[in-house]
Write a structure and sequence with these properties.
By secondary structure, the chain is of the alpha/beta class. The chain is about 45% helix and about 20% strand. Strands 1-9-8-2-5-3-4 form a 7-stranded mixed sheet. A two-stranded antiparallel ribbon has the order 6-7.
């Protein structure tokens, strides 16, 4: 039964993905009305997060951020579907890099790279990085329980050459690559919250002390890897650009947790610049310490 449902859904998504962009975004607008005004998907969580972290904004401004976020969220998921059939030339036009030379400089240091980025703007289309690099690209992701839809996600995210690694296999896979002399760039979206039990480091994020993921930094230290942050910005509807920001090219000279701190500061700055493009549906602050 799961297989039948999968093929029906896949066929529908494929048909949506081949639509011209004007029609494609009209559908996204319709989904926005359904999700925001009728279903109210996670609206309580979104509103709570925005009120908690952006208290300097008026109630009217907070609601504007909220509505813009839902509109962006619908576009982002639709654009993920578009990846099924979008051409290389089209996606290159819509997702560009402002300073790819900096990335090449890091490649020339002959160390594998951990690339941090956030659930912000179009992280899905960041797979286009593979067109411009000599290092093999890997994305760290959490495997879905449904094997058919897990395959769909893997197919979409690996369409342009990236390889996905399940979070449970991250350390072994990267360590094996290092032992075999394979240099790679490993994408970590590390802005979600770890559990309290696994929290090794706490820092202030958007005005509240919360646990911070440190797995990427830990791997970089143990395997002597360089670290970059990829800041993705929305230019206009359907168009994005990414800028690489150095975190460290000498991690053993950095104090413990300094890399994780630098990463979360970059995410924070980006959210303050344009908060509507952050993924507010996550319960990022559920483990915050009482003030």
């Amino acid at each position: 039964m799961q297989r039948i449902v999968f093929y029906l859904v896949y066929a529908l998504l494929w048909l949506i993905s081949i639509l011209p962009f004007p029609i494609f975004y009209f559908i996204s607008d319709c989904i926005f009305v359904l999700i925001y005004y009728i279903i109210g998907y996670r609206k309580k969580t979104v509103r709570s997060n925005i009120q908690l972290t952006l208290p300097h904004l008026s109630k009217k401004e907070q609601l504007q951020v909220e509505r813009k976020f839902y509109k962006y969220m619908c576009d982002m998921f639709m654009e993920m579907i578009k990846t099924l059939t979008i051409s290389e030339s089209e996606i290159k036009k819509r997702f560009s890099f402002t300073n790819i030379d900096l990335f090449h400089e890091y490649e020339n240091k002959n160390k594998s790279i951990i690339l941090f980025y956030a659930h912000y703007a179009s992280w899905e289309w960041s797979v286009t990085l593979g067109f411009y690099t000599k290092f093999k690209g890997y994305g760290i992701y959490k495997k879905l329980k449904n094997p058919y839809f897990d395959k769909l996600v893997r197919d979409i995210r690996s369409k342009f050459g990236a390889t996905l690694i399940d979070t449970k296999d991250t350390k072994k896979s990267i360590t094996d690559n290092q032992k075999n002399g394979f240099l790679g760039v490993y994408g970590f979206i590390s802005d979600q919250t770890p559990t309290r039990q696994k929290a090794k480091y706490w820092d202030t994020f958007m005005g509240h002390e919360v646990p911070i993921h440190t797995g990427g930094e830990s791997l970089a230290r143990s395997l002597d890897m360089n670290v970059l942050y990829m800041k993705v910005s929305k230019v206009k509807r359907g168009y994005y650009e990414a800028t690489f920001i150095p975190i460290t090219d000498n991690i053993n000279a950095e104090p413990e947790f300094e890399v994780s701190k630098k990463f979360i500061r970059e995410v924070e700055k980006q959210i303050y610049e344009a908060p509507e493009y952050y993924f507010w549906t996550h319960k990022r602050w559920k483990h915050k310490k009482a003030q």
